C-alpha cells in the first residue's frame, strides 16, 4: 500500500515483505524500525516473510524497503487466498512481458510512434479508446501473419504468472483476463494459463491484412470494470472476494470495482490508487501477499 509522509495506522493487518535481496540484516533492521523485538517473522516463500498483528507502517520502514528494493505492504487479514473467489488480470505487461500492439508495430517499423502513444495512455494522458484507435490506424495494411509472428517470436508469460494462476486454482479462485489489447493474443494466453475467461478487442482483417480498424465495442477502462462486475455477479461473489491486477491507467476502474486492487510494476498514477503495489518481485509475489499465516508449514526467523 502506498504510504504517505505520515504514519499510517490500520487494524487487523499483517506486514508482508518480499524481495530477492532480503537477508538477516534486512530482517533485523526492519524489526528495529517496527520495535517488534518480541515478534517473529514467518517465512512464507523463498524471499517472502510475514509479521502478524501489525497496525502501522512508519515512513522510515517504507524508505528502507525502497532503498533495499523490497516490496512492503500492510495487508488486511481479510485479504487471503482462502477468502477470494475471483482474480481479474490485465494482459500486456502484466500476465505477459510485452505490449502486443508495440510488437505488431515493430513489424511495420513503427514501434517508436506506437509505443509513445501506448505510454501516454498508460500514464492517463490520453483517453484509452482514442489512443487505441490511433495506434491501430497506424497498422493499416500489415499482413495478419505478423500477429502469429508476435506469438511465436516474442510473447512470453511474465515470471510467476503460472505460480499465481496455479495458486488460484488450488483455492478455487476463478480467473479472468480482461485486456485493452487484442483477442488474438488474449485467447492464446487464456489457453497457456488455462484461465476461465478472456475478453479483449478484435482487429478487423480483410484479405489477410489489417484494415487499421477494430470490430465491435472497444474494451476500455469502463468495459474492463463492467466485465469484472458481470462475472462477479454470475459467480454470486461479494466485491470483497475479488482482486484485480494491472499496471496502467486503463486498469484503474477495474481495480476500483474489485475489493482489492494490485498495482504490478505499474505507472505512478496506478500505484497511488491501488490497495497494494508490487515493484520488485514477480507475479508469484501475489501468492505470498495473500498467503494466510500458517506456522505449521513455514519457517520462523528472528
From TrEMBL:
The active site is at residues 90, 92. GO terms for cellular component: cytoplasm. Pathway: Amino-acid biosynthesis; L-serine biosynthesis; L-serine from 3-phospho-D-glycerate: step 3/3. Its cofactor is Mg(2+). The keyword Calcium does not apply. Signal peptide: none annotated. It is an enzyme of class 3 (hydrolase). GO terms for biological process: L-serine biosynthetic process. It catalyses: O-phospho-L-serine + H2O = L-serine + phosphate; O-phospho-D-serine + H2O = D-serine + phosphate. Keywords: Amino-acid biosynthesis, Hydrolase, Magnesium, Metal-binding, Serine biosynthesis. It comes from the Bacteria. Pfam families: HAD. Its EC number is 3.1.3.3. SUPFAM superfamilies: HAD-like (SSF56784). Gene3D superfamilies: 3.30.70.2020, HAD superfamily/HAD-like, Phosphoserine phosphatase, domain 2. GO terms for molecular function: L-phosphoserine phosphatase activity; magnesium ion binding. Belongs to the HAD-like hydrolase superfamily. SerB family. This is Phosphoserine phosphatase.
